[in-house]
């Protein structure tokens, strides 16, 4: 966890939902029902340019964090998640956790549960039009003066019924934690790394088609409920 998720809103809707401005320009990806590692995704950040006011914006990033000191982008697919329990001590994530935190909005995420010789995919969602706010980190990697902005999703131990599907889940932020998590002047996020049980209890664990197993499939039917045998 988290290896696949869905993001279905355009940047203007996300900006309105997260009280931000749309900073994606013409780079915003379209609705994606099967986001896989290294794809471009949208994230919410807060930055304060020199002599300007703090601004919250929706930006485009590449999923799979690449530290600024990495030689190349080849390790990105293995860096899509960061464990909340160790994010403040791991060299690859520590500075981003302190200074460069973001929110990665999602309609929901997928997980696979072993079941009688096969794995049954589930889509974890709030079941309405409300986005999940997955806690994330971001970093900038440079080559030939060209920046690549990358990100990772924080994960924690699963709570409640989620533990029956998978032992890890994304760190989901309730709205009253958004500002504190995004605040670039706050250098100690340790109190925000505990999962919020109320969000977990509100989730729908929706069985979905095994069509999601292939990243080639990408349409709205992937998040629709199916009846289990």
UniProtKB/TrEMBL annotation:
Domain of life (superkingdom): Bacteria
Enzyme superclass (EC): hydrolase
SUPFAM superfamilies in the cross-refs: BB1717-like (SSF143081)
EC number: 3.4.-.-
Keywords, ordered alphabetically: Covalent protein-DNA linkage, DNA damage, DNA-binding, Hydrolase, Lyase, Protease
Keyword Hydrolase in annotation: yes
Keyword Amino-acid biosynthesis: no
Family statement: Belongs to the SOS response-associated peptidase family.
Name of the protein described by the UniProt record: Abasic site processing protein
